[in-house]
Amino acid sequence: MTRLGTTLGIGALLLGVGSLEAQQAPDTTTRNQQTTQQRALDSLGTALRALQTRLDSALDARRAPALASTPAQSPARAAGTYMNLSFVGLTAAGFSTARDLERIEVGDHDPRARGFTIPNAEIALDGAVDPYFKGFVNLVHKLDQQSETVVELEEMFVLSTSLPANLQLKVGQFFAEFGRHNAQHPHSWAFADDALVLGRLFGADGLRGQGARLSWLLPTPVFAEASFTVMNSAGETTTSFRSEESALIHGGLPAEREVEGLAEMLYVPRLSTSFDLTGSQTLVLGASGAFGPNNTGPGARTQITGVDVFWKWKSPRASAGFPFVTFQSEVLSRRYDAASRTDALDGVTALPAALLKDVGGYAQMQWGIRPLLVAAVRAEVVRNDDPAAAAFTATEREDRDRYSTNLTWFPTEFSKVRVQYNFDRRAVMGNDSSLWFQFEFLLGAHAAHKF
Amino acid sequence: MTSKSPFVLLSVVALLAAASAPPRRLNVVATTPDLAAIARAIGGDAVDVKALAKPTEDPHFVDAKPSHILTLNRADVLVDGGAELELGWLPALLESARNTRIAAGAPGRVSAAQGVKLLEVPTSFDRAHGDVHALGNPHFLLDPANVRLIAANIAQHLSAVDAARAAEYQTNLRTFLTTLDAKQTEWQAALAPYANARIVTYHKDFIYLAERFKLDVIATLEPKPGIAPSPAHLAGVIGAMKAQHARVILVQTFQNRRTAETVARQTNGLVIDMSQQPGALPGTDTYFTMMDAIVRALAKALAETK
Q1: How far apart are CA B224 and CA A396, in angstroms?
Q2: Can you tell me the ipTM of this complex?
Q3: How far is C-alpha A19 from the geometric centre of its chain's CA atoms?
Q4: Which of A160, A166, A217 to mutate to test the interface with B (most CBs of B within 10 A)?
Q5: For chain B, does the N or the C end have fewer beta carbons within 10 angstroms?
Q6: B255 touching A (Cβ < 8 Å)
Q7: Whole-number Å distance between alpha carbons of B152 and B169
């Protein structure tokens, strides 16, 4: 069909040129010019006749399949659809009274500079691999504060589609299923930035890594799903475990800790349930844990536990999914068992073994006022409760509150404009205000939204 | 022998129990209430039918909530539109439902669009034209000719999944088609006096009805599919309605009635409440009663504005 369109376009263009030249013909004086023009006209005429023939046969070809009743598939689409391909591009802009943007915004996809940033440019591929597996890939590009392009294989996994007994296996690199926010991509976040407590306990990239997850849909009258993930415990996406940046948590030099056996793996269990309170209200409850080794010394371990709740009301007469109201909250707690270690600042002082405790949470509400317009508010708290707090200063773990509000407008479901205000109160750094704008667009397939 | 006999005995008891118990009713799930209504007519007493979308809500935007995952997990048969109407929510549900009985291509999966000649199949894919469905316009159930195909399709799949009751499904299908034929004649007669009448709709969701019953949809309040009406576009619609003497505006329950009323005020027009989903309006629980209501409301409005 594109070929037909092109042919038509060229035909129209040639017709235009032809008539233009025909009009000019009487004005020209010399015979020589007339002959040249006549030749040009003749050749144009020939070209037009050839185009006409092609056009006719193209039209005939198009009519034939239309009459042959059935296919609900258009040929142009059928050609390359073994996978869905999409791209999400996010531009952020704004200003903060704080200068330590890397700390005030804790997530890697957050606006972390005064002025403009590209915190997320994501290529997503997905499709059925075969009758047994589906495949997903997320390739993330972003520009850092120095305008350098950073590329990461954010997610890449296969998901089983036909295991018996309501089981499902996921293998590869993926966001751990812990709570609600951790596994969500920035595209579906209600705010321009990551939740403080998740940034603090899971790091800028969230809890993510290479591993396998088995999930089971329980044979209960209400929805209940249990999942269990085993993954590697090392790297910058497992901040609370064997991370080289763990000094930010415990102030000491990280110890070398190799994988000796199952004790050095990270385990993430989760149980969630959901039921409809009424025809238009749904509640989801969940409890998650993340248990694994940390690298303050041999045998040292970290335990993170969390509970989450999500409630949604949607009008029974919803248009484009509006109006709606949602409430979402997560509370997380970390017990970081730090072994005795050497102070990272001087490399000499011995820091005593200590149990470092952090707790935090957020609560947010979204109101889908009318189609494609959403207002939201969020309150966040993070606290540390170290008995040994005096032994070292962990600026990354200072007590902090943040209050945010935003307004999001979706010109269509494929684009988004957001303005957000944050007020921060930090125990050491003081109070700050930030104003952020977000512009997001989506090309290609739009993956269905999970609840 | 001693070790085997209890097992044999158990098996015999189980077999007897299975034979004497009435056969289990099939769990049939339909994405939308219109498909559910047809499945109910074909399945009769042999099936329990559940629809995922509410009759009153916009079927393009249904929440992929966990209770739907559970419903799909336990389904023997799934009837979906098959033309991407449910693209924004069904794939996420199916991914979590882990039910191979209703996987694409399985006997338990009915794709309603199969065999249906879809209208408005785009020839290029460009979202500058709005949210155009790549496979064509998916609101095809208002043409009884399409419902004929869908009913036969459902009967075929139910028979494949539940061969023991195949005869029952075929009988139900014949009854349904006989009524459908009679009803179609009736609907056509009711609308015949208004052949080529000009109407306006909110979204491009009545084109199959218009095509079958010879109505002329001269404009939609949405400038492009899925794009909210703008004042400039509405001014154009008002102009077109005045110029072409169109006075009837069709609005579904979840669409913005106020916009339609604004246009109607300036065109001496009439807004009529419509629903393409059985159960959205009182007394419209089956496909037939729903179509009766549509035809009746339309004929009345066209008579009043003639």
Answers
A1: 50
A2: 0.89
A3: 55
A4: A217
A5: N
A6: yes
A7: 10
